[in-house]
Write a structure and sequence with these properties.
CATH topology of the largest domain: Alpha-Beta Plaits
Number of helices: 3
Radius of gyration: 25 Å
Structural class: alpha+beta
Number of strands: 7
Number of domains: 2
CATH class of the largest domain: Alpha Beta
Distance between the termini: 65 Å
Strand order of the largest sheet: 3-5-6-4-7
Order of helices and strands: EEHEEHEEHE
Shape: elongated
CATH architecture of the largest domain: 2-Layer Sandwich
């Protein structure tokens, strides 16, 4: 709508900015509600392993009482963690998914191996990196 104000030139008024403002507010509130709902969902805190069908015959030797592991990724979606684990399985036959909670949100970490020393874990991390799966050594809790 165009109006002329007492010799001050043309003034344009419209309802579009109001609709845009409220649309942004509604979308923002919906996004906030969604993130709160996601954070309140139950999060399992146990270890999940991938199916054994994709494992090669010769697994990488790792200490069962290890203090270190190699983390390849961390995801908020279990499906994304499982996809990385399946893709990395030829190089990380000892890979697994560890489901935890951080900051009230689910985190699915893809880790490989369990090593007694950081040196062993670093060697495994170097092997994985050469295979195209860079990761970092993480001390287990």
């Amino acid at each position: 709508m165009i109006e002329k104000l007492r010799g001050q030139g043309v003034h344009v008024t419209s309802k579009a900015p109001d609709a845009l403002f409220w649309g942004v507010i509604v979308v923002g509130l919906l996004g906030l509600a969604w993130s709160i709902w996601q954070s309140k969902r139950e999060t399992p805190e146990h270890e999940v392993t991938a199916p054994d069908a994709a494992k090669p015959a010769a697994p990488v030797a790792a200490s069962s009482a290890g203090r270190f592991t190699v983390q390849l990724g961390a995801f908020s979606s279990r499906a994304n963690a499982e996809a990385l684990l399946a893709k990395a399985r030829p190089a990380a036959s000892d890979g697994r998914i560890v489901a935890t909670s951080a900051g009230g949100k689910s985190v699915f970490r893809v880790v490989a191996g369990s090593f007694a020393t950081q040196t062993e874990a670093n060697a495994h991390a170097a092997t994985l990196k050469k295979s195209g799966y860079p990761g970092f050594v993480k001390q287990l809790d």
